[in-house]
Amino acid sequence: MLACIFVSVGRFRVLFTHGFGSQEYAFFYYYSDVFLTIGLYFTLTSLYAHVFEEMAAEKSIRFGSILLLLGTALFSFAIVMQSGPRIAGRFFVEVSQNLNFVGLILTYVLWAAILKLRETRTRLIQLVLSLGIFFSLLAASFALRNLYPALHSVLQSLYPVTGCILPMTWAYAFWRFPEDARLVPARLAVVPR
Amino acid sequence: MIAAIILVCSIVFLLQFFVSYCRSLIAASSKQALSPEVRDVTGIAQSATGEDFARVMQLLRLCPESPEDRSRVQAVGAYFRLLSFVRSTAARIMPALRAWTETERSQCAYFAAVALERRIAFSRDMLAQQMDA
């Protein structure tokens, strides 16, 4: 959240100095977006560490997450290499989109693990579910933009709304649910278990 | 092709996460007992039904909003509309789905009643603060 605030201040400064249509603003926007996405990716892996803390799998999770991050970056680079010039700019956009989808898959796997391991911490469950909603919305909007470029202007107005979801739901989870609040996760599954 | 697969996957995942998230919000309030006063006002004598939801939401709109519950009332409202849509479409041919949507809708109504109770308490606190000032 702190990184998000700093990035927003930085974006505003660059916007104010160079203008909305400038190359500087475009570069700063997409570079900072990758920075925030990577931050969120590591936040997700720390949620993994919380869920699997009894298995003492923190080192394996850290190693696996770095490996997956490098793999995603290489995959994105391979795609960008095939698509022509201006590699740097496209690379960061591609990494950001792919990381969002990887994040979505990882969140889904984590949710399945929560159900399987009968994790009962309400706050943790809320954090994972809201992260899932956030990643799904982002992945869906990126996919829609690629499928229907004409929708770009409509989708652009949805990004700020999507961006508000995570801070609001996480703030609610931290504010409303104490650390020791418990919930039966089987009650939350769409398919009854 | 890849974009279409990503779109379908993300919509399916979004629905699953959204339903589970709303159920987690509802589950957190399901343990809370309603006061006789709120039972009288809402007309929920024993257990709530899906039909109570609209009435309780109308009452909820009459109370001053507390910043605490605005977004989750909106989320559960969207969940209720989704359930009503499923009930009027797919659930017509699947009786099990119909029973499930009805149970969920009644839990949404109970959630709204608990939110109403909180808003009444919030309004009373505000009034008390104004009287003190």
Q: Cα distance, first to last residue of chain B?
A: 64 Å
- Count of runs of 4 or more consecutive helical residues of chain B: 5
State Rg of chain A.
Answer: 18 Å
Fraction in helix of chain B: over 70%
Give the percentage of residues in beta strands of chain B: under 5%
SS-based structural class of chain B? mainly alpha
Our measurement of the CA-to-CA distance between the termini of chain A, rounded to an integer number of angstroms, reads 35 Å
Element order, helices and strands of chain A?
A: HHHHHH
Q: Would you kindly provide a written description of the structure presented here, covering whatever features stand out?
A:
The complex is a heterodimer of chains A (193) and B (133). Chain A starts with a helix and ends in a 17-residue tail after the last helix. Chain A has helices at residues 2-18, 23-51, 58-82, 87-117, 122-147, 152-176. Chain A contains 6 helices and no strands. Helix content of chain A is 79%, strand content 0%. In chain A, helix 2 (23-51) packs parallel to helix 4 (87-117). Chain A is globular, with a radius of gyration of 18 Å. Chain A has one domain (2-188). Chain A is mainly α. Chain B is mainly α. Chain B has one domain. Chain B is 78% helix and 0% strand. Chain B is built from 5 helices and no strands. Chain B has helices at residues 2-30, 36-42, 52-62, 70-88, 95-132. The longest helix of chain B is centred in the C-terminal third of the chain and has 38 residues, at 95-132. Classes of the chains: A mainly alpha (193), B mainly alpha (133). The A-B interface holds A 101, 104, 107-108, 111, 122, 125-126, 129-130, 132-133, 135-137, 139-140, 142-144, 146-147, 168-169, 172, 175-177, 181, 183-184, 187-190 and B 3-4, 6-7, 9-11, 13-21, 23-24, 27-28, 68, 71-72.
